[in-house]
From TrEMBL:
InterPro entries: ATP_synth_b/b'su_bac/chlpt. This is ATP synthase CF0 subunit I. Keywords: ATP synthesis, CF(0), Chloroplast, Coiled coil, Hydrogen ion transport, Ion transport, Membrane, Plastid, Transmembrane, Transmembrane helix, Transport. Residues 64-134 form a coiled coil. It comes from Xanthophyllum eurhynchum. Belongs to the ATPase B chain family. Signal peptide: none annotated. F(1)F(0) ATP synthase produces ATP from ADP in the presence of a proton or sodium gradient. F-type ATPases consist of two structural domains, F(1) containing the extramembraneous catalytic core and F(0) containing the membrane proton channel, linked together by a central stalk and a peripheral stalk. During catalysis, ATP synthesis in the catalytic domain of F(1) is coupled via a rotary mechanism of the central stalk subunits to proton translocation. One of its GO terms (cellular component) is proton-transporting ATP synthase complex. It comes from the Eukaryota. The chain crosses the membrane at residues 26-49.
Amino acid sequence: MKNVTDSFLSLGYWPPAGSFGFNTDILATNLINLSVVLGVLIFFGKGVLSDLLDNRKQRILKTIRNSEELREGAIEQLEKARARLRKVEMEADRFRVNGYSEIEREKLNLINSISKTLEQLENYKNESIHFEQQRAINQVRQRVFQQALQGALGTLKSCLNDELHLRTISANIGMFGVIKEI
């Protein structure tokens, strides 16, 4: 440790001006060399270093400006996208409302159509039932009439003799004559 402090103290001692020699003290010579190199670098490198720093500063500022422009563009695109989204949402709501009302309208139309169809079918059914009832009634009437006629003919044949038969025919012909005159 004493050698290190001695080397710093010996810096104050300079050999007389007339002699030239090698300094064997490594620390003293390194400090001198380092200070000379730093002095030369500062003197000559000052312009280069300031140019490098200015260029770097300009690139950073340019990057910041570009970033700001990109950010503003992104914000503008975001606002446009939000506006389009709002417009599309309004359209979707309108379509949804129109769709629901259209569905309700179609449902009511379908219900009304089915109701009318059912009513027509009910009317056709009732008409068919009425027609079948009338046909059945007519068939029953015809059978009753035929049976009554057959019964009456049977009774007449058993009760009528030739003289009564001729008198009945004469009476009927007389009635037809009166009806013809009227």
